[in-house]
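Incident log, support desk, overnight shift.

02:14 A customer reports that sequence design results differ from what the structure should imply. Their input is reproduced verbatim below. On-call engineer (initials T.W.) acknowledged and began investigating.
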């Protein structure tokens, strides 16, 4: 069964390890690499190859209409924030959009206090929602695994998303007139940029693992190096928010000394954890193209979107106790 091959430590090589403050990143080369042709949603917007709009004049909070105007495949990442129209939204899952196609995509609102047009359509942002919001959404979708239709299966609890946005505001000491997640990043942009400014991209990499105080918190892998490069800064900005929130909850900093062997061991153990629970893996069709594999374990949320047996995007999100995701698991 292909689930045995999706998350493979043998397919992943650590290229380097960097530290800044409490944050560490290990950049990865995962094979196959650059084996599929597609562009990120950012590049698609820059070349006017995509249009994202409300599904109708009245709109639907949890759905958007995406039109691929190009002859290329386009990738939208789970956690991508789309700004504009009646309110800002976040993509509920990663999406691989076929050329010259229109699709309804599942989203959640991350701007509770606005429901009025400020633009005709949506534009891309330089933001991803943080790990906790992504993990909560992924868990909701995993719990929908017995639902037959994609429109039902890929829905997340809107109330939980709003609660988590408000929690992020309280934990980062920010506020927003429209309860917009994007306002957190606007207010904190300089602080977060300073927290990650020394971390440099490796042009041979197509993924990374990130650590806070020496403990692995997540892995993001892409098929293409250029798509990874498009998301590198966005991922790090979300990690910076996680680090700020975690450190504020501590009375004192925890000393750590993360060496590359320890990082590689954590990465290998985290990736391999998927294979210990294959009977619980949920497999379904992607929103547009491809197959999704999703798994919740005691420690992590696993996700893979593949097309023609090749990974497009793969993520592992560490689940901390305060995310309240661990309920009645069969372990």
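02:41 Re-run completed on a clean worker. Output:
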């Amino acid at each position: 069964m292909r689930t045995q091959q999706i998350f493979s430590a043998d397919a992943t090589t650590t290229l380097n390890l960097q530290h800044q403050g409490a944050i560490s990143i290990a950049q990865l080369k995962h094979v196959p690499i650059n084996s599929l042709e597609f562009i990120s949603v950012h590049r698609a917007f820059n070349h006017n190859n995509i249009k994202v709009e409300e599904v109708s004049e009245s709109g639907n909070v949890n759905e958007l209409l995406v039109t691929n105007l190009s002859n290329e495949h386009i990738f939208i990442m789970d956690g991508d924030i789309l700004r504009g129209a009646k309110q800002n939204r976040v993509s509920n899952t990663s999406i691989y959009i076929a050329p010259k196609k229109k699709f309804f995509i599942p989203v959640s609102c991350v701007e509770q206090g606005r429901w009025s047009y400020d633009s005709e359509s949506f534009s891309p942002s330089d933001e991803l929602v943080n790990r906790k919001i992504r993990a909560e959404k992924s868990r909701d979708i995993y719990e929908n695994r017995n639902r037959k239709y994609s429109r039902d299966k890929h829905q997340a609890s809107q109330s939980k998303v709003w609660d988590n946005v408000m929690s992020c505001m309280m934990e980062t000491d920010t506020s927003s007139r429209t309860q917009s997640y994007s306002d957190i990043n606007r207010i904190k942009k300089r602080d977060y940029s300073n927290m990650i400014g020394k971390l440099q991209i490796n042009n041979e990499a197509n993924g990374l693992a990130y650590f806070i105080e020496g403990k692995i918190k997540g892995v993001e892998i892409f098929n293409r190096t250029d798509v990874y490069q498009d998301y590198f800064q966005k991922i790090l900005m979300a990690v910076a928010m996680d680090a700020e929130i975690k450190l504020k909850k501590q009375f004192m900093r925890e000393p750590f000394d993360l060496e590359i062997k320890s990082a590689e061991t954590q990465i290998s153990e985290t990736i391999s954890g998927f294979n210990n629970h294959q009977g619980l893996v949920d497999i379904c069709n992607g929103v547009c193209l491809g197959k999704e594999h999703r798994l919740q374990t005691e420690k992590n949320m696993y996700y893979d979107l593949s097309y023609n047996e090749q990974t497009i995007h793969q993520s592992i999100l560490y689940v901390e106790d305060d995310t309240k995701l661990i309920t009645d698991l069969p372990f």
